[in-house]
Backbone:
């Protein structure tokens, strides 16, 4: 009985969340898959061929998306690091209200401030540049980094700091040599969300990048509506694999560096 | 918090302001400034084209247009249905995943797949599954439920926004699961064991013991998902039906496809959306606090 209900949950999870990925793979390999076939009548590699022909464009839009998303992660990190320490450690008047206010950019529709800014970005020649795209993405996604870092500083506690200070480290040394390395897991937790938000955003990049900043979502969008679904499916799968690959790499290298320092 | 950092740090000092400034400056300049410019442009100030009418002309145009209210109501409905659906499904699934034995818990990680997929890709998945020539239609044909393609219910173009609701729910469920599982990890299983020993039924355990503990994560994810579906653009751009459309599409059309003279109208809709979002957050959190003051904390 117990066993059957566990199986049921797993089957449900797989059919809801993993089956779509499997179907995307089939669609990618079988452009001619038509109603009412449950299994494609024949497979072909035209989708893959198209992928190879347009390889340059795909790689450049992928690289551009990757780079501006990474830049967004570092910008949000720079924005949130010291304020998160303040929020985790200090009590001051109006703290709760300020915290609520600082989280609103992730809640209200991003269109509402992005479109107002658009005109100014055009005047300042920030529109259609990577800087403009990164700024607007950072503005929309920093609350995830902020929350993660505040939690990170809270779990860190005061003891490491006190200990390092007692041993004669200055405030700067404490921050760079003691606290920052210990905060890496929190940074990665916040950074992965920020990266995913930035990497998968279509509209804000379209608005601020104006088509001159290539993006993978921008490349994918017209293909989703086209009749050749197989290419769109393959590109969607790349979308899935790149972040997964990235997280494995980061996780692995983090574990290695911790092991080297004897922390695990 | 049990500790508060340096004693006497309750005053707002220059150092405090300096350390807050990396976040406060962009927040004030870009976020508050952006909203301010949206409001200004809705009033006809700072518009690219000199505005000749009165201050609230754009609002008058919008509020006298029945299609605006149709769109607003439609967006509200889609957001409500998808957020409620996501949170309900996520609560059930997260609870069941939490109960899985360790050996199976790793396999449950597949729930994170839609979390990685961008919204437009999730919309594409819904298209592949639910269109009349899609996978589910083929399955229904093989099961003998339908005789031909048009017999399959026209889910994506029913006029009810079902396609968008499906896509938002598929994308939102794993997100809510993530938040709910984070709370469940810290949940003390002995509470359940005690309740079971005292004779509580499974249903009673879930509703009286587990659910109240998950409520904070459920509320947070509901607010986030509701407001996101209410105002986002990506999924409606792929799955929208003609009328009534989502508000975000309406804004997009006014902004990009009409002449500059109608810019204040687009901005007026955005201003109203912003006000709605803020009021919604305040009203929702007030209601939750109000409801919870009556509940005895364990």
Residues:
């Amino acid at each position: 009985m117990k066993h059957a209900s566990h199986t049921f949950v797993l089957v449900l999870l797989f059919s809801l969340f993993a089956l779509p990925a499997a179907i995307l793979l089939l669609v990618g390999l079988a452009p001619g898959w038509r109603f009412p076939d449950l299994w494609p009548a024949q497979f072909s590699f035209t989708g893959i061929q198209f992928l190879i022909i347009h390889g340059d464009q795909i790689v450049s839009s992928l690289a551009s998306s990757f780079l501006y998303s990474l830049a967004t992660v570092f910008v949000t990190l720079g924005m949130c690091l010291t304020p998160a320490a303040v929020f985790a450690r200090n009590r001051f008047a109006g703290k709760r209200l300020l915290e609520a206010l600082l989280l609103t950019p992730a809640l209200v529709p991003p269109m509402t401030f992005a479109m107002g800014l658009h005109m100014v970005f055009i005047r300042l020649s920030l529109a259609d540049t990577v800087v403009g795209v990164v700024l607007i993405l950072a503005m929309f996604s920093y609350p995830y980094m902020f929350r993660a870092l505040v939690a990170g500083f809270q779990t860190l506690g005061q003891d490491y700091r006190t200990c390092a200070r007692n041993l004669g480290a200055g405030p700067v040394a404490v921050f760079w040599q003691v606290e920052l390395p210990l905060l890496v897991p929190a940074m990665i937790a916040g950074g992965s969300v920020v990266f995913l938000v930035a990497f998968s955003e279509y509209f804000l990049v379209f608005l601020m990048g104006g088509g001159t900043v290539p993006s993978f979502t921008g490349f994918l969008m017209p293909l989703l509506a086209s009749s050749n679904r197989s290419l769109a499916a393959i590109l969607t799968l790349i979308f899935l694999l790149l972040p997964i690959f990235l997280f494995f790499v980061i996780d692995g290298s983090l574990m290695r560096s911790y092991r080297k320092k004897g922390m695990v | 918090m049990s500790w508060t950092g340096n004693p006497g740090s309750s005053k707002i000092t220059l150092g405090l302001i300096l350390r807050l400034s990396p976040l406060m400056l962009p927040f004030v300049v870009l976020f508050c400034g952006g909203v301010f410019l949206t409001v200004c442009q809705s009033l006809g100030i700072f518009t690219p084209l000199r505005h000749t009418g009165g201050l609230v002309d754009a609002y008058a145009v919008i509020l006298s247009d029945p299609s605006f209210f149709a769109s607003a109501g439609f967006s509200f409905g889609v957001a409500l249905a998808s957020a409620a659906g996501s949170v309900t499904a996520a609560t059930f699934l997260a609870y069941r995943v939490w109960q899985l034995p360790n050996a199976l818990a790793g396999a449950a990680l597949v729930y994170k797949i839609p979390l990685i997929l961008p919204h437009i890709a999730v919309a594409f998945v819904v298209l592949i599954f639910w269109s009349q020539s899609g996978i589910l239609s083929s399955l229904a044909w093989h099961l003998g439920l339908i005789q031909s393609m048009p017999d399959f219910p026209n889910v994506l173009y029913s006029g009810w926004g079902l396609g968008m609701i499906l896509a938002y729910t598929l994308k939102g469920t794993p997100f809510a699961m993530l938040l709910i599982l984070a709370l469940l990890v810290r949940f003390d299983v002995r509470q359940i064991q005690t309740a079971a020993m005292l004779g509580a039924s499974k249903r009673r355990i879930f509703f009286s013991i587990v659910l109240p503990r998950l409520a904070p994560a459920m509320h947070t994810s509901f607010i986030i998902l509701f407001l996101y579906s209410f105002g986002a653009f990506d999924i409606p751009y792929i799955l929208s039906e003609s009328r009534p459309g989502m508000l975000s599409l309406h804004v997009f059309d006014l902004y990009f496809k009409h002449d500059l003279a109608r810019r204040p109208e687009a901005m007026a809709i955005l201003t109203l959306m912003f006000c709605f979002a803020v009021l919604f957050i305040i009203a929702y959190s007030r209601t939750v606090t109000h409801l919870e003051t009556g509940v005895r904390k364990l």
